[in-house]
Amino acid sequence: MTARTQKALTASTIPLIAIMTAVTTVVTMFVKIPTPTRGYLNLSDTMIYFCAYAFGPWVGGLVGGLGPALGDLISGYPQWAIFTFVIDGVQALIVGAAVRKLRALDVVLWSVIAGAWKVFGYFIAGGILSGWGPALGETVGNAVQAGVGLVLGFALFAAVRKAYPPLVRLGNLGVKAGA
């Protein structure tokens, strides 16, 4: 484990991870739009992006993987849980690792790249679970889910950061509180 990883995953982050995982699980389950590949579209990306922006790659990756995967398990989609854990966790890792400063171009670019990873990952998972035809049909929905999640996740991050400036000391961004 690197020094950066050890710093990110301290005893004080365990409650944060637990709370954000619970919130992400609930958000994942709150809006469920069933899809032809026996999966569903949801608002998990909102929390995946928020956690990656606010808390960095390791906390974001754990929350991004665990929350939606638990949502799959609880909602009766256990066949998706391991795929969801990996795909959504890596999505948050990509964003959290790349967005170190709050520059609009970096946020948009890396968030779109992470969203493209998600669409690709779910295409592969859907192909394995349900066949390539249905999986291809899901790509538009997954892209929309990632795009909506990006917009809502950044809006949530901006609102929380404004209401609670010390958030930047807890998380990922190398900016001063209140900036």
From TrEMBL:
Pfam family, one: ECF-ribofla_trS
Keyword terms, alphabetized: Membrane, Transmembrane, Transmembrane helix
PANTHER family documented for this protein: UPF0397 PROTEIN BC_2624-RELATED (PTHR37815), UPF0397 PROTEIN SPR0429 (PTHR37815:SF3)
GO cellular component, one term: membrane
The name this protein goes by in its record: ECF-type riboflavin transporter, S component
Membrane-spanning segments: 12-35, 47-71, 77-95, 107-128, 140-160
